[in-house]
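Subject: Re: docking follow-up (3-isopropylmalic acid)

Dear J.,

Thanks for your patience while I sorted out the input files. As discussed at Tuesday's group meeting, I've set up the holo structure prediction with 3-isopropylmalic acid included as the bound ligand rather than trying to dock it afterwards. The sequence and the ligand SMILES I used are pasted below, so you can double-check that they match what you have on your end before we go further.
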Amino acid sequence: MNLKIALLGGDGIGPEVLAQAVKCLKAVEETFNHRFTYTEAPVGAVAISNDGKALPKETLQLCKDSDAILFGAIGALEYDNDPEAKVRPEQGLLKLRKELGLFASIRPVKVFPILSKNSVLPKKIVKGTDFVIYRELTGGIYYGKKSLNDDATLASDLCEYSEKEIARIAHLSFKAAKKRRGRLTLVDKANVLETSRLWRKVVTEISDSYPEVHFESIFIDNVVVQMMTNPSQFDVILTENMFGDILTSLGSVIIGSIGLLPSASVGSENAMFSPFHGSYPQAKGKNIANPVASIFSTVLMLQHFGLYEEANAVATAIQKSFKKGITTTDILGSEKYGTDYVGDYIADHIVDSDDDSNI
Amino acid sequence: MNLKIALLGGDGIGPEVLAQAVKCLKAVEETFNHRFTYTEAPVGAVAISNDGKALPKETLQLCKDSDAILFGAIGALEYDNDPEAKVRPEQGLLKLRKELGLFASIRPVKVFPILSKNSVLPKKIVKGTDFVIYRELTGGIYYGKKSLNDDATLASDLCEYSEKEIARIAHLSFKAAKKRRGRLTLVDKANVLETSRLWRKVVTEISDSYPEVHFESIFIDNVVVQMMTNPSQFDVILTENMFGDILTSLGSVIIGSIGLLPSASVGSENAMFSPFHGSYPQAKGKNIANPVASIFSTVLMLQHFGLYEEANAVATAIQKSFKKGITTTDILGSEKYGTDYVGDYIADHIVDSDDDSNI
Ligand SMILES: CC(C)[C@H](C(=O)O)[C@@H](O)C(=O)O
Ligand SMILES: CC(C)[C@H](C(=O)O)[C@@H](O)C(=O)O
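The structure tokens for the complex came back this morning:
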């Protein structure tokens, strides 16, 4: 298969972890005889320092013209600490999501049994955790009208949702639940928010079309407790943009490191694959960032294109690195290896399991 | 001291846990020679079923005329599952907070070492946890304009904050940090939200007036991970209404039960004391709800009125119940006692430590 892949490394550790993902894809090309072409483009703080724009026109166009986008990370300290900055790195990511219509962020939270001691939670709680969060990604308070009055004494953000926005991701998530263990949990704050009540109404109506799926709703303040004390009860979690941001991050606590989890952001035309984690600027250039989340995002990408054997080969190589203890400093109980070394190890162990010469 | 106390039991387990708190206050009156008067009033689902209003005028007036309000809990399943209900129990609580100007919810998260095995988190992480969350309680998305269009296809909630709203709770929280370990952490999502940027700007400016307090800001998606993996780093956490709801609930995971933690909601004129937990309708009338959070809320109330010895006496009696394993089913590793029994035990063990006859 020929695939045009856009590489958006972004800020902080983004480019270095993405480089490891590309190594692995190159190994996939060679092993399985594919031809992927890679084109790099700037986004985020890096892009702002070039020409003042967090998402240059050329980068957006490249993404539109590509089959898939691999994304690194975004965000830089100098902007976090400057509430008055006019242009912000995150705008690049938010605009990209919006312009490409990537309305669903799909974030699997599944334990790697071999790493379960890495979690702060006890084994008996972590065991069997295997859920996926469907986070709405192009609506809600992230994108509603923002305002700040002239003397900067009053600010506002509007959280807005339409039935249509809710319905399209709801259908996606019910379909996923049907193929999985048949449970869907909607997270909202319907006892307070009007938008949550619309979510609850629309999703409850849609649930009638999926009688095989057990549907329930739960408040955001309750679900955070449930997720830490009984995560294996969840199968598919559906939620709006802001709650989804918080919940996916919390999900990484179960796994033990935010450096392991990937996400797919999909729309009707485009798809983007990236780690859960942020730009971790403190680690930039130190060769200590965990490349697994980024490498894992290629597994989601390969699956997206129906390349299941290839996806498996990458996943298996990642598992092998865990088994051999070839991991970065965020993973307990082994020697510590650099970002590069872990990337090389995984890329070197990508094999075609059907190929006799590998047995 | 004479105190007029309004008792708002509310829904679900609210009235039964509140009854235990009152038992303890009566023991305090007797032991320390005070005179408290108690007046009950309806709020929430109970009030709606009486006369259609979640907060009857008489209840509000009673609260205004009282020195303190003891609150139970609010919420009922029939409303949670009816997104189209016009009147909702929670409106009673939200209106009460607003009308009384209770702009700061103060929620201490402190481990009881003797119960530390009740937490899902390991002892080495739980150990030393002692922070307090200052949650803004009368602004933000809870109170901004809500709308739903006529054909119920578009909903919105406005999150709005003024400099003044931010400044008054910021000062309270900095003062608290000054008296405590001198650390203040502002939680926001300043990389996305305009209101968060105003919070960051205003609080950063105010931090200059408290040079003894170390001030830092952190994103909401990051803080949930930090809170589960390294909670002892926090001293005072300051945040807006919605994030505060989520964070305080998550704080209970560290403690091991949401049935243990109290909160004080304060304004310039009134103060209200209540458990963290909700109405837990499934447990109503079963005599299984943990009364400690409600009893603990009287400790905060007594402290609020400068009755430190009295507050201590209640806290000591609670500790004694833990030591003796006189706890409800949510607490691990002891026989299980009923709500009533635990309440009686604690009330019976409230003694004046200065009184020789008790030695
Ligand atoms: C960088 C930030 C804008 C982003 C978000 O909040 O969506 C990130 O936290 C994420 O979860 O993808
Ligand atoms: C009952 C509900 C409206 C309330 C809130 O969200 O504020 C509760 O969860 C709380 O934390 O006090």
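A couple of observations from a first look. DSSP finds 13 helices and twelve strands in chain A. The mean pLDDT of chain A is 95.

Let me know if you'd like me to rerun anything.

Best regards,
T.
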